[in-house]
Amino acid sequence: MAKKKAADLLKIYEMMQRIRKFEFKSQDFNNQGLVGGSIHLYVGEEAIASTVGFLLRKDDYICSTHRGHGHVLGKGIPSKYALAEILGKETGSNRGRGGSMHIADLDLGILGANGIVGGGIPCAAGAALSIKMRGTDQVSVSFFGDGAANEGSFHESLNLASLWELPIVFICENNLYGMTVPIGESTKVHDIYKRAAGYGMRSAVADGNDVFAVWDAAEKAISDARKGKGPTLLEFKTYRWRGHWEGDPLNYRTEEELEEWKKRDPLPAFEKSLMADYGVKKETLQEIDRKMTEEMDEAAKFALESPYPDPATVMENVFTNPL
């Protein structure tokens, strides 16, 4: 692959910082009891959503998961609207109706995060079918975890996508655990990408903590889909630093395991490469860090000061049977 442009890589770096600081701010709000329901943080996996989001166009589609903050930020939702949504505020991206697990923005091609494991996979396949029927060169992307790869929706969607040669990229973020269950206790073959062979589909596996590896794999898959060459299953090996949800006792993994994965933190590894291979100054990275800290402080202020929805509007945008 051709060498990347430093300006493009800095955009990805900025998004990675945005996602991590957003997640820590969300964690802080949750610890204060300001978040209704559960939140599932993306800390440790930022390289995937940031890079894929950069490679997609505004009119492309994504379907996300319960761990979806990184995906929707990567696709372009402003931090303040996403944070307000998590707090259930009227100014949120979905007027406080969706919360942490159901953020959507149709104008940005975000068809929704999804609290159902594997629930977004057939939705993304449906979007890909609409692309093919309309004859555009858009692409649909489905993000999901290793646990979702054992759901029927995964297999049904891959089968139809391959059969109909749909313009979709299936992205499995394999963080080694489906809730509290290690992949070795739920899945005989630990490499999810190998399942594509059963559907005659292209596939690839890469280090999900390496921006360059994610870029190369995702760029080819997105390009193939855009050119009408059909679907690809990508597997990115990664790790979530936090539990399945905030409040998870984490008694199913060791501190030693977590510390080993923290040594593979995607942010400092990327920083090192930017400085060594692309001549980026440390001061430039520090300024991005400062800028994102400031953005999160402003987003938090916006979210906290925003009003809750008027209870009188509770039935707005809700389908009711007129009969």
Q: Can you walk through the features of this model?
A:
By secondary structure, the chain is an alpha/beta fold. It has one domain (6-304): Thiamin diphosphate (ThDP)-binding fold, Pyr/PP domains (Rossmann fold). Helices cover 43% and strands 10% of the residues. The chain contains ten helices and seven strands. Strands 1-2-3-7-6 form a five-stranded parallel sheet, with helices on both faces. A two-stranded antiparallel sheet has the order 4-5. Strand 4 (177-178) and strand 5 (181-182) form a beta hairpin. Helix 1 (6-31) packs across helix 2 and helix 5 (120-134) runs parallel beside helix 6. The longest helix is centred in the N-terminal third of the chain and has 26 residues, at 6-31. The termini are far apart. The mean pLDDT is 96.
